[in-house]
Amino acid sequence: MSTAPAARDYGRYEVWAPRARAVDVRVDGTVHAMTSRHDGWWELASLSAVPGARYAFRVQDGGVQGGSAATEELPWLPDPRGLLLDGGVDGESVVVDPARLEHDPTWGGIDLRGTVLYELHAGTFAPPPDGGPGTLDTAIDRLDELVELGIEAVELMPLAPFPGDRGWGYDGVGVYGVHAAYGGPAALARFVAAAHRRGLGVVLDVVHNHLGPAGNHLSRFGPYFTDAHHTPWGQAVNLDGPGSEEVRAFLLGSMRQWCADFGIDGLRLDAVHELHDTSDRHLLAEMADARDALGAELGRPLALIAESDRNDPGTVTPVAAGGLGMDMQWADDVHHGVHAWITGERQGYYADFGSAPVLARVLTRVFEHAGTFSSFRGAVWGSPVDPACPHYDGRSFVVFLQNHDQVGNRAAGDRIHAHLSPGEHAAAIAPILLGPFTPMLFQGEEFAASAPFAYFTDHEAELGAAVTRGRTAEFSRMGWGDAVPDPQAESTARASRLDWAEARRGAHARMREWYRTLLRLRRAEPALHGAELRDTRCEVLAEETILLRRRAPAAGEVLVLIHRGASRAELPASDAEGAVLLASSQAVLDGAPESSGALHLDGPGVLVLRRG
């Protein structure tokens, strides 16, 4: 039987350094020699770790660092399991006891499968009145607006400490930490408690496949990385070599911290295809079993959401059935199908997408590349999704029109709606929110935010210049002619901050009302509650028009007519007879009552109807 990761004693100074011959800890300026426990761990039993104390470790040789530097020349290093850094990624750790932070004791948990997720970046989501960078505390002030919109859970982009004050967080170096510029662990606890009081679940995006290029000191402590496998970022995390048992426990322990000690409801796992693991039990399967045990211990459901490039339904198949046991996985092919169809873009990974038949396939079978040739990858890719499989359903796949990658990894960080008419934007989001999947919005898309979401960093000068050159060269090779904003420029991050005043005026407010309308229908219509892929059909009426059919047992049928063209689009006569109009995007965007309008579309838009 699987067991939950062991609880941590936050009142102890201890660290894993299996090859060290001596380890010291400096606490508030006083140096103490630590004692080896003969299992690779070192401890200081004579002094309790008191919240607020500053501390760092010094690891003496033993083959980890190489060479024979004098003790006084060795660096003082932050705790690999530190929750807060003082002085940046090379600074000291600060003792934090999560039990002393804010919690909502009444929270009973949430089943995240099928909920409406909302991805946000703490630094740009909710700028304070002075226009400066946002924090987790300023984000609390916008939660009521998300609840009113119909959001059910928020997904926080990575919070791990990273170089400088601004960045996306995917170059973080503290798997257990919360970036100080966002308010640190105390602010995260306040945010989670505030979200829970409003009935919102919280998902945290974590990066276990690599650490950032600056401030990564893990190799000084032990064999956290291996040359046996490589990733786009260099050495792989050691999941199957000597010492990997403790590395795996390190990652599992962080899961316990976030879910048990901070009340997080689920983790989004970045790029799991780069977790190279040839052991008999893959790390993800071990995490899935630990999730179940920890959820049982806590008395509330926990979820693991994988970002995977493999297009493999085995990712969301239970461990007992031979899968990896993830609750959900991101479904990029659905995004690509919608994006390419509505915009006409075909470069890069959009090359195999864009037609109405491809759109119909991804809206009903998730993957376009399902054991078929991918021209972008130059290989046969993926495995098919079985709509009759009992091990997963539509809710197992997270779909989106926008997310941090699909916006921020464009040359200029431009959002899709910057190139669409309001009617086209309304058409593009409809299958995302009314399909059988777990939908996710990206901050600001609901009111067609004018702010881009560009890639930005705050590295030291030499590394920052290399990042700037690399990004410019990358997009030059891809043929994207847009000027690439300098990631290092503070203005790039500032331009990515949302202007919430937009959400209350003009076309922005009307688009937000369309999103709210779709989310209300998602809750209200029984036919939209079903998650079985076999109960969802999509008909191609013309290259510019599709008809999405949603059914659920004894719940009738909801029809979603989606049209991207300038011409008129009509329901088939057999469907129009007896149909009740639930919503018209053209009526909502014109400011008319949401259920008013004709049973046809003049130009791009959406009709939602009920039959039976």
Automatic annotation (TrEMBL):
The keyword Hydrolase belongs to this UniProt entry's keyword annotation: yes
Boundaries of every Glycosyl hydrolase family 13 catalytic domain copy: 119-471
Protein name: Malto-oligosyltrehalose trehalohydrolase
Compartments reported by the entry: Cytoplasm
Family to which the UniProt record says this protein belongs: Belongs to the glycosyl hydrolase 13 family.
UniProt-listed Enzyme Commission number(s): 3.2.1.141
One GO MF term attached to the UniProt entry: 4-alpha-D-(1->4)-alpha-D-glucanotrehalose trehalohydrolase activity
Highest taxon of source: Bacteria
NCBIfam families linked: trehalose_TreZ
One Pfam family in the UniProt entry: Alpha-amylase
Record's keyword annotation contains Zinc: no
Pathways per UniProt: Glycan biosynthesis; trehalose biosynthesis
Origin organism lineage: Bacteria, Bacillati, Actinomycetota, Actinomycetes, Micrococcales
InterPro entries noted in UniProt: GH, GH13_cat_dom, Ig-like_fold, Ig_E-set, Trehalose_TreZ, Trehalose_TreZ_E-set_sf
Catalytic activity: hydrolysis of (1->4)-alpha-D-glucosidic linkage in 4-alpha-D-[(1->4)-alpha-D-glucanosyl]n trehalose to yield trehalose and (1->4)-alpha-D-glucan
Keyword vocabulary terms for this entry: Carbohydrate metabolism, Cytoplasm, Glycosidase, Hydrolase
